[in-house]
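Supplementary notes (optional reading)

For those who missed the lab, this is the record we used. Protein: Deoxyribodipyrimidine photo-lyase. Length: 471 residues.
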Amino acid sequence: MPIALVWFRSDLRLADNPALHAALEAGFDPVPVYIHAPHEEGRWAPGAASNAWRHRSLKALDLALRQRGSRLLVRRGDSAMVLQQLIEQSRAQALFWNRKYEPATQPRDAAIKQALKQRHVQVRSCNAALLAEPWDVQTRTGEPYKVFTAFYRNVMAGLAQRALQDAPEALPAVPSALKGEGIDALGLAPALNWDAGFWEIWQAGEAGAHQALEVFVEGALRGYLDQRDLPDRIGTSRLSPHLHFGEIAPWRVIARLQAQRGVSLDRDIDGFIRQLVWREFAHHLLHHFPHTAQQNLNPRFDRFDWASTAPGPLQAWQHGRTGVPIVDAGMRELWQTGMMHNRVRMIVASYLTKHLRVHWLEGARWFWQTLVDADLANNTLGWQWVAGTGADAAPYFRVFNPVTQARKFDPQARYITRWVPELEALPVNARFAPWEFPQLCRGRACDYPHQPIVDLAQGRQAALAAYARTR
């Protein structure tokens, strides 16, 4: 049988993998390949938490391939050069891959495809990540969308369920002459095991993704819309890292949800699918406005008076020592688990960009290093949305009051207490703003900052004044 390379990137699964299945359907013996080339990601090479996840996900993929008679061939270097070497060594006649959509990788992939076609190598790219390609969704005038609601309606109007494809039961062996590196040699796993807390709640890999989907369907899906904003419980799907690394297809998620349709769940299913379309919107924006990974989409904010990035306030925010319990709880959850509840992400981002008036890029860079689901499109959209600088953004003058938010979404302070245990001896009503209750300082509570690093009212007023100067 002729050989085809199947180039794995952010599609670390065997089920619903269009490139793998296309190679098999075309009559090729697939050689699964992973090329480690972080230098080709531009300014957004994968962060530490992402690398820790990828390490485990690659091992899970390799194990799944070996169980079917194949293996993952791992190389490192410039992708174009490595692929050319592998084509020559294997005498492959074709190359299949699933598309990536980042600004740095799209032109690279296009150049590789053109160069190989000139050498008469069959090249095919597929969509393994999105419900709709970014270039297929446009306004009536042919322009990209900047408003989510209109984008959502367009996507849903054209949404068709794709056929599900189970993982192949067996695969051809990779020729023994083709040598690669061990996954451990890539240096993705942290040397000091600082990620140990991650794996108490996460299972990287395709099997973990399918298990997470079942746990969601059998649990948090019921009541999703009412509980997704409450950080003291598992009220969300926890599928985001699995989707980011391509361990599960979004259309399989939707198919599983649709199978649960019924009067009591329709509202929650529709609400979750809407969140999946927000993910689509993020990729749509990054494709059409690639500069937004580094720059404001709204140029008005190019003259905004951001505060100087003094290390003290930024580091206090990063390490959960701002003196604002809900903010500190979120940042500590992030450090220990590689994840932060979505409602709390908005609170901590608002606090950084509004109360501290630190440029959203500083927050985006920290999240990039510490989130296991760090996705350039979602990270960019989220930070620009909260900062008020992006598409369909919350207006800048919308400043979350972190104390009010905590009382509303964590009314028993369970989330705060879990991640800021210094405050557990205080009455519940004092845990939201302990500086208002100095007489209660006792025990470990005295080790917590006695005052926020910035007065909330003064920080809000300074942010609104800076905003007014841009008008």
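If you only remember one thing from this example: The mean pLDDT is 95.
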